[in-house]
């Protein structure tokens, strides 16, 4: 029933404009929260296109890059940091495959989305990406600390 502090990871999760406009904020937060992950940062904002381009910098050579950045900056986005053991990898599992055509029922995209260009949520794809994305979207003081005793009900 113990977990080492080193095993507690953080990941960046964003509800994209389609997820926000469709009223899926609480549904998505609920899935991460019920699993046992902790919400350590949250804000709602409409990113600029320039900011969207920084966020998706890895995809700048892809044909859908421009449209993707237009879309991410088209309306309010809920930016979050979630914390817990294995949250980077398991968060991707909760989210499901990139294309909702392939994502399993039971996953967020499998249950709630149809098309890859409107797949409602983003999650960091690895620990390094998570650190970079958290730093891009949040200042360190925007993240909370739950304290030393808060893990005992989970681990
Ligand atoms: P995300 O970064 O949003 O969590 O998605 P991902 O890792 O599962 O997928 P990635 O390959 O990094 O693509 C990022 C986002 O680009 C959009 N996309 N459109 N063929 C297309 O039109 C296409 N392919 C990808 C999706 O919104 C995807 O989430």
From TrEMBL:
Coiled coil (residue ranges): none
Q: Which domain of life is it from?
A: Eukaryota
Specify whether ATP-binding is a keyword of the entry. yes
Gene Ontology biological-process entries: CTP biosynthetic process; GTP biosynthetic process; UTP biosynthetic process
Q: Which reaction does it catalyse?
A: a ribonucleoside 5'-diphosphate + ATP = a ribonucleoside 5'-triphosphate + ADP; a 2'-deoxyribonucleoside 5'-diphosphate + ATP = a 2'-deoxyribonucleoside 5'-triphosphate + ADP
EC number(s) given by UniProt: 2.7.4.6
Q: Where in the cell is it found?
A: Plastid, Chloroplast thylakoid lumen
Question: Any idea where the Nucleoside diphosphate kinase-like domain is?
Answer: 8-145
The annotated active site, in chain numbering, is 122 (pros-phosphohistidine intermediate)
EC category name: transferase
Q: Where does ATP bind?
A: 16, 64, 92, 98, 109, 119
Keywords assigned by UniProt, alphabetized: ATP-binding, Kinase, Magnesium, Metal-binding, Nucleotide metabolism, Nucleotide-binding, Transferase
Question: What is the protein's major site of localization?
Answer: plastid
Cellular component aspect of the GO annotation? chloroplast thylakoid lumen
Cofactor section = Mg(2+)
MF (Gene Ontology) = ATP binding; metal ion binding; nucleoside diphosphate kinase activity
Task of the protein: Major role in the synthesis of nucleoside triphosphates other than ATP. The ATP gamma phosphate is transferred to the NDP beta phosphate via a ping-pong mechanism, using a phosphorylated active-site intermediate. Shows the highest specificity towards GDP.
Report quaternary structure and partners.
Homohexamer.
Protein family membership: Belongs to the NDK family.
What protein name does the entry list? Nucleoside diphosphate kinase
- Entire-sequence positions represented here: 78 to 232 of 234
